[in-house]
Specification:
single chain, 396 residues, alpha/beta, seven-stranded parallel sheet, four-stranded mixed sheet, 11 strands, binds nicotinamide-adenine-dinucleotide, binds magnesium ion
Length: 396
């Protein structure tokens, strides 16, 4: 149990875009937060620099080799941080007795097991890692409930929705009419759809409004990011699939909206800076200076809205298809998409074939209701194998 007045934080994926922004906010409020543990997959030097600055008790790396390298560097720099390795260590720092809050900022299904560990241990769980919830679904939400954890969304849209809803979650079901999820439309909102086959990783990663990790940047370009967010919203807010609508809003000023049963709409606005939802999650229900620029309504030209074009963004519909299919189907969709995006970034798959891989995998892998983390990991592995074979076929 943490008896100090400062919140003790574990940051999973601390060297990534969200991890770095989280540490930026934490550094502004050293009277409120202390860093208990950090983690990274491969970036030894970045994690070393973070250890030197934030003095965590633990640092976790994915492989033995990286862990040994970090331990050696820490020793040479006289830093006391202990180095641990692998998925068990991630679970341990997420569920540790002395931790108050866990920022889940790993990308992909790899973040699921530490998220579940934090949920079961009743932590304040700040969720950026949307794939974990898309894979975990009902199982994830019941771990949160049974563990008595507090789940706070960090994805900007879900933070916006959360901020637009009343604090008492037991009133949501009868008050929400619709969730209006805004989307920027990404870098290809106006690109000729017949040229999508020639999109390069560099073009796909050049997002007009946000600077993010490579995987989510590609997801924004296909709008699979929005598909994952639709599924994320369904689980977080307990709404039916047909209560979620996606609206393209290219300026990314409105981060999402809730329409209530009386037709009133409440929206959350701000500059596109992830330090806002991160601060909101860290401080909730209080507010903290985030370091983000303020909106200036005097110079804001206009806010515009569009209906997503199904031909340009065929992947968006897969969210509803997966939500309406057997439980576990959202995990299949996520695994297929992770494989397809990775292969696209490695230049082993065409951009427009990402959707083809996702569609084929959904048709090939039919889940039976996952009952445990082991079932989910098994389903995830099956879907990855099917996605690789679909991608192999498309590549030849
Ligand atoms: P990123 O690629 O910049 O960082 C990912 C982090 O996870 C890194 O620290 C990396 O070392 C670690 N990591 C990657 N694979 C791992 C593995 N297999 N095991 C352990 N650690 C691993 O990604 P990001 O943009 O910071 O996104 C992180 C998560 O937050 C994603 O789920 C993304 O969808 C979500 N998110 C990001 C943004 C954003 O603005 N970047 C916005 C909303 C949601
Ligand atoms: Mg988002």
């Amino acid at each position: 149990m943490n008896m100090s007045l400062r919140q003790r934080l574990t940051i999973l994926g601390s060297t990534g875009s969200i991890g770095v922004s989280t540490l930026d906010v934490v550094a502004r409020h050293s009277d409120r937060f202390e860093v208990f543990a950090l983690s990274a997959a491969t970036r030894v030097d970045d994690l070393l620099a973070q250890c030197a600055r934030f003095r965590p008790r633990y640092a976790v790396m994915s492989s033995d080799a990286h862990a040994a390298q970090l331990a050696d560097l820490l020793r040479r720099n006289d830093l006391p941080t202990q180095v641990l390795r692998g998925p068990d260590a991630l679970e341990a720092i997420a569920a540790h007795d002395e931790v108050d809050a866990v920022m889940a900022a790993i990308v992909g299904a790899a973040g699921l097991s530490p998220c579940l560990a934090a949920a079961r241990a009743g932590k304040r769980l700040l969720l950026a890692n949307k794939e974990a919830l898309v894979v975990g679904g009902e199982l994830f939400m019941s771990a949160v409930q049974q563990g008595g954890a507090t789940l706070l969304p960090i994805d900007s849209e879900h933070s916006a929705i959360f901020q637009s809803l009343p604090e008492d979650a037991s009133t949501w079901a009868r008050r929400i009419d619709k969730i209006l999820l805004t989307a920027s439309g990404g870098p290809f909102r106006t690109r000729d759809p017949s040229t999508m086959h020639s999109v390069t990783p560099k073009e796909a990663c050049a997002h007009p409004n946000w600077v993010m990790g490579r995987k989510i940047s590609v997801d924004s370009a296909t709008m699979m990011n929005k598909a994952l967010e639709v599924i994320e919203a369904r689980f977080l807010f307990g709404v039916r699939p047909e209560q979620i609508e996606v609206v393209i809003h290219p300026q990314s000023v409105i981060h999402s909206m809730v329409q209530f049963t009386d037709a009133s709409v409440i929206a959350q606005l701000g500059t596109p800076d992830m330090r806002v939802p991160i601060s909101c999650g860290l401080a909730w229900p209080e507010r903290l200076e985030s370091g983000a620029a303020r909106l200036d309504f005097r110079t804001m030209a206009s806010l515009t809205f569009e209906v997503p074009d199904k031909r340009r963004f065929p992947g968006l519909e897969l969210a509803w298809q997966a939500m309406r299919a057997a439980p576990g189907t959202t995990a299949v969709l996520n695994a297929a998409n992770e494989v397809a995006v990775e292969r696209f970034l490695d230049e082993r798959l065409r951009f427009d074939h990402i959707h083809a891989v996702n569609l084929e995998t959904l048709q090939a892998v039919l889940p039976s209701k996952p009952q445990s983390l082991a079932d989910l990991l098994d389903l995830d592995a099956r879907a990855r194998r099917a996605a690789h074979s679909a991608a192999d076929r498309l590549a030849t």
